[in-house]
Amino acid sequence: MFHLERCYDVDELLTKNMHMHTNFSGCAKPEMTFSALVKKAEESGFDTIAITDHSNLGEGNSITRCFEQTKLLRDSAETNVKILVGSELSLYGVGKYSETPEVMAALEYRLFAQNHYHLSWWEHPEDKSPSGYVAHMVACLEELFKTGYADCIAHPLAPIKLRGDFGHDDIVNAIDDNTLGGLMEKAEASGVAWELHRGVVYGWPGFSRRFFNVGREVGAHFVYASDAHSLATVGVEDVRELYRKTLG
After folding, report:
1. Residue of 46, 66, 106, 192 with fewest CB within 10 Å of its CB?
2. Beta partners for residue 154, in sequence order
3. How many C-beta atoms surround the C-beta of residue 122 within 10 A?
4. Are residues 49 and 86 in contact, defined by beta-carbon separation less than 8 angstroms?
5. Residue of 61, 48, 53, 137 whose CA lies nearest to 88
């Protein structure tokens, strides 16, 4: 299990980027080669990055082959940036994971997405209200925390691509502080960190501030994550002031 030190200083958090995709992920731009990504990470001043290409059912990608090839590139790279090779794994239902425990154990960094409800094979709750989706995400995460599989949670509790008869604001507003605090305590007991995700901080600054403040109260671990699919979103200079204003 990989765990960074607990940190609540925004500028220090922005020295690491723990969620980026190479063009092994079909949703990333062709420019996102390993070498181009590492060069951009160096230029952006990161000391640590995680490469987390997707593991999605039915898409024909082998995360094992991707991991092995990326690890070979990493091991031969000349850079001072620490590079972890992992995967953005799918937590697509309660107790449902896109890879076997054996495959997950081989990864250097295990990032779990619990809210890709736009994918056709993703489990949805019977109660399709905002509170129903919150309860489903909480149940999925609580079950994950029992396994020891996870290092970090991707874009937590903000189902950005969910299509329903309500807005995304309705979902994040249905998450009360007691629910957040209890979930974060369980994550911390299991050694699981949370992303301060670029898209979530930009889209829901009020929720992100509340999320960060509750996490500080319970002693949660956080990491910065750009979720970069293009070279333009690897660095932090365009979001540094947003993070300082929102979280500082």
Report:
1. 106
2. 113
3. 20
4. no
5. 53
Report the pLDDT value the prediction gives residue 1, as an integer from 0 to 100. 62
110 pairs with which residues across the strands? 87
Residues in the chain, total? 248
Tokens at 128, concatenated = 């399709």
Cα 98 from chain centroid?
15
Which residue type sits at 80? N
How would residue 180 be classed by pLDDT, with cut points 50, 70 and 90?
A: very high
* Angle between helix 177-189 and 130-145 (nearest 10): 20
Count how many Cα atoms sit within 13 Å of the Cα of residue 6 in the half-sphere of its side chain.
11
Are the CB atoms for 10 and 243 separated by under 8 Å?
yes
Helices H / strands E in the chain, number of each: 10, 8
| Under 8 Å between Cβ of 85 and 70 | yes
